[in-house]
Write a structure and sequence with these properties.
By secondary structure, the protein is an alpha+beta fold. The protein has 5 domains: 106 residues, Chitinase A, domain 3, CATH 3.10.50.40; 106 residues, Chitinase A, domain 3 (Roll); 106 residues, Roll (Chitinase A, domain 3), CATH 3.10.50.40; 49 residues, no CATH class; 87 residues, Recoverin, domain 1. Helix content is 14%, strand content 28%. It is built from 9 helices and 25 strands. Strands 1, 2, 3, 4, 5 and 6 form a 6-stranded antiparallel beta sheet that branches. Strands 7, 8, 9, 10, 11 and 12 form a 6-stranded antiparallel beta sheet that branches. Strands 13, 14, 15, 16, 17 and 18 form a 6-stranded antiparallel beta sheet that branches. The chain is rod-shaped.
Amino acid sequence: MLRAGPPSHTLLRLPLLQLLLLLLLQAVGRGLGRASPAGGPLEDVVIERYHIPRACPREVQMGDFVRYHYNGTFEDGKKFDSSYDRRTLAAIVVGVGRLITGMDRGLMGMCVNERRRLIVPPHLGYGSIGVAGLIPPDATLYFDVVLLDVWNKEDTVQVSTLLRPPHCPRMVQDSDFVRYHYNGTLLDGTAFDTSYSKGGTYDTYVGSGWLIKGMDLGLLGMCPGERRKIIIPPFLAYGEKGYGTVIPSQASLVFHVLLIDVHNPKDTVQLETLELPPGCVRRAVAGDFMRYHYNGSLMDGTLFDSSYSQNHTYNTYVGQGYIIPGMDQGLQGSCIGERRRITIPPHLAYGENGTGDKIPGSAVLIFDVHVIDFHNPADPVEIKTLSRPLETCNETAKLGDFVRYHYNCSLLDGTRGAFWQPQPAAEACGRGVRWAGCEAGPRPSSSLLPIPAARGVPGSAVLLFEVELVSREDGLPTGYLFVWHEDPPANLFEHMDLNKDGEVPAEEFSTFIKAQVSEGKGRLLPGQDPEKTIRDMFQNQDRNQDGKITADELKLKSDEDQERVHEEL
């Protein structure tokens, strides 16, 4: 129905004389039209709205640009024009004289997807002149119209927020890089494109000319996880040219957008402390070995990994390149027991390529981290005195002493469970004992305190002991099972040979040693079964293993050590 095409309801280009005559006839010929349904002549356009959409966000007004389909017929049903036959929508401005008056009036107030039947009397159509060979004089015209698009040159991008997440860490700004899903339709709902069918998000920069202008504007201020409806007029989309076969000329576009994430190439790691335990005396630095739990998600909340599901912490060195750079940075400065959220831009994570099938390219990663513990390979044992006995403390534990103690053992996050031992434990001092009682005093060591019957201790775990010293005994020099408090008898074998038969069997040897202990002349290695210790002593002296010791076999350990020195010299 355009001027250059077949007959249409638009005002044809007529010679000036014919045009003036037509206007005069329209002015005086209101009673010359076809009869109205009631039998009289029509005074105005008859409008039948036989399909009205439920939602009508906008109605056609004077000066709007519209796109619509129509069929034009006479009263007898004979068709004189159709946009369907031409497979081209009518596209024109309403109310500025480019259409016949009846069509201008009939389109006013129409909604997108509304269907109307219009009856246009002759004086609002082509009057008593008609269009030679196409529309006879004084013809009443019948149009079936469906409106598909409407916009105005004063329009801007229309943004409707459909869903906004409660937490919005940042909003889209010019020069940001965004990842989003979308469904694209024309204003009448005809789909022309979707990211969902392509197996991935649409990834691009905003405000850099990579998108149509309307989408650049429609994405601004959007939060990750937000859903928007963005309506873009043609002059901010593809304009008169359209795009291929899917977007016609002068088409308004509607995008339903879900923003997945947003970042800027200038972004650094963002830290948010969720929980900070009181009394943080040390913070992690590069070179520390850390154990932590984490949940890893994309910016839209999609979970891609979790240490909790693996039933153990993630254990690694910090600041040494064993983990992605953003996590290396994000863990430094944390405290034991702290919970923090670490947001990592893709250039400090897995970059444009992503990794696996769960982390797409250019994805921002969010880690909710719970620091369990950390230490440094150069760390000494840390000792803190919790209480001291009121009486004077004159003696402290020394290397080789035998001690008895109570203790509670826990991980640094407070986990005890299987580590707790209610009964006293016994151990030789100097093997990494961490003391809280005054008798022991500070005694750092490079190893850790052994845990009797310990189980379930994670690898690389820092252990915390609360220790109460119960008793202490002087130990023996290394390698000794028995020591004399004073000098041994001058003729030791004669004293040991109780029945004077020139040999000492095991029973006689045991009787002698026990007598020395009971008389306070010597003592056995503490913490061991005395009977076993005496048997071991006897076997050491019974050189030929014949079940008895002779004078030639019996030697003090000090004498043996001296002989060994001479042999080495």
